[in-house]
Amino acid sequence: MSTPRVFKMSFAKIYPLYVQKAERKGRTEAEVETIITWLTGYDHDALHHQLDQQVDCATFMTAAPDFNAKANQITGVVCGVRVEDVADPTMQRLRYLDKLIDELAKGKPLEKILRS
Predict the structure, then answer these.
(1) Which residues contact 27 (CB under 8 A, 6 or more apart)?
(2) pTM, two decimal places
(3) What is the pLDDT of residues 31-44, one digit of tens each?
């Protein structure tokens, strides 16, 4: 089986797309960063170091220092696929992030997005 193309993409190229999506809906980059840090365990400096280093998406997710234990509470559909049914753990982590950004763009309160 071939490696999904998204695994090889730089997370630094995807991050601004998340920010643009959020900003188009009146949300902020700070909220996007809050979601990413909550999910992955990277702090602000570590996140920006990963962006500066142009790490690929697979590395970004697999090297996450403290992937949130509440991630399994994230459910729903992204690109026609239920995130809870994704078999590959790295792809599932990416889909979790996609789902959280979708929730942000749809106006869901940050407290609910972060499963507080």
Answers:
(1) 104, 105
(2) 0.94
(3) 999 999 999 999 99
The angle subtended at Cα 65 by Cα 64 and Cα 69, nearest 5°, is 85
Q: Where are the alpha helices (DSSP H) in the chain?
A: 5-8, 11-24, 29-40, 44-52, 57-62, 89-105, 110-113
How far is Cα 113 from Cα 108, in angstroms, rounded to an integer? 7
Please state the length of the chain.
116
Which whole-number Å values give the CA distances from 100 to 6, 8, 13, 54, 75, in the listed order?
18, 21, 18, 22, 10
3-state secondary structure 8-31: HCEHHHHHHHHHHHHHHCCCCHHH
Structure tokens at 21: 């999506």
CA distances from 106 to 25, 79, 113 (A): 7, 15, 11
Virtual CA dihedral for 111, 45, 14, 65, nearest 10 degrees?
-70
Contact 43, 17 (CB under 8 A): no
